[in-house]
Amino acid sequence: MKNRIVFWGAASLILACLVTAAGYFYFQPFSPDRGKYPLRGIDVSHHQRQIDWRRVAADDVAFAIIKATEGGDHVDDAFAANLREARAAGLAVGAYHFFTFCRPGADQAKNFISIVPRDQALLPPVVDIEFVGNCPRRPPPDELNKELSAFLGPVEAAFGKTAILYVTDDAARTYAGQIAGRPRWVRSLALQPGHDDWIYWQYHDSGRVDGISGDVDLNVLQGGPEKLAELFAPPPESISPETPLSP
C-alpha cells in the first residue's frame, strides 16, 4: 500500500511538472525563423483595449490587421482609432471582417465597405471564417460558396485587391472546396505550416507586445519588405471611394 502511494505521488508530481513545462513553453514568445520571415505583425480588435501604437511599432511590429466589422451590422468600436493610430505610428495596416453564417453575404459586404476607408493605402481585406463565436447553424458548402461570393465580389471590386481568407482548421476541413486557390492566412501555433501556400502565418495567440496590455495574436508575412510594400500599395486610381455597390 505504501509503495502504491509513493508511486502515484511520484506520477502526479511528474505530470504536474510536464503540465507546468508545457505551459511555460507555450506562453514564451515563440518566433519563427526571422531570417526567413523578417516581418512580424499583429491582429487586434477591441479586446486589446487601449493600444499604444508607437510602442507597438518600436517593438518589432511592421503590420497590423484590425477588426472592422462582423456580420451585417456590427462595427468594432475600436476600429477607427486603431486604424488611425497604427497608421500614424508607421505600420502597414489592413482591416478584417468576421463572416457570420446567419446574415447574407451581400449585407456583410455593405457593412464592411461602409466602415473601411477606401481613400488611403491598405493591406488586402481579410475575411475571417471560423466556427467559434459564429452562428450555431453551419451552412452546407454550396450555400457558403454562394454567400461568400456575394461578400467577396463587392469587397474586392471596392478595394481593388484580392481578399485574403483566414480560416481555422475545422472550418477549412468543412469548406475546403470553397477556399481552394484563394490567398490564405493560416493559423499554426508554434509549428511551421505544412505548406508555403499562405500570405500570413498566425503563429501565436497569446503573444506579448510592448504597448498592449495582455495577449495578442502574432503573425509573420510570407516575404520581406518588398512583399509588404506590394500588399500595402495604394488602391488603383480606377477605384473611387464613391464607387457604388451593385444592388
Question: Would you write up a description of this structure?
Answer:
This protein has helices spanning 2-26, 53-58, 79-88, 105-115, 141-159, 169-174, 176-179, 225-231; strands spanning 40-44, 63-70, 74-75, 92-98, 126-129, 164-167, 184-187, 200-207, 216-221. The protein has 247 residues and is of the alpha/beta class. Strands 1-2-4-5-6-7-8-9 form an eight-stranded mixed beta barrel. β4, α4 and β5 (126-129) form a beta-alpha-beta unit. α4 (105-115) packs parallel to α5 (141-159).
Q: What's the short story on this structure?
A:
With 247 residues, the chain is of the alpha/beta class.
Biggest pleated sheet: 8 strands, mixed, barrel
CATH architecture of the largest domain: Alpha-Beta Barrel
**Shape designation:** globular
What number is the mean pLDDT?
87
Instruction: Let me know the number of strands.
Output: 9
From the alpha carbons, calculate the radius of gyration and give it in angstroms. Answer: 20 Å
* Structural class by sheet pairing and helices: alpha/beta
- N-to-C order of helices and strands: HEHEEHEHEHEHHEEEH
Number of helices: 8
Low-pLDDT ranges: 19-27
Look at the structure and name the CATH superfamily of the largest domain.
Answer: Glycosidases
Estimated share of beta-strand residues: 15-25%
Helices and strands in order, then pairings?
Layout: H1 2-26, E1 40-44, H2 53-58, E2 63-70, E3 74-75, H3 79-88, E4 92-98, H4 105-115, E5 126-129, H5 141-159, E6 164-167, H6 169-174, H7 176-179, E7 184-187, E8 200-207, E9 216-221, H8 225-231
Parallel strand pairs: 1-2, 2-4, 4-5, 5-6, 6-7, 7-8
Antiparallel strand pairs: 1-9, 2-3, 8-9
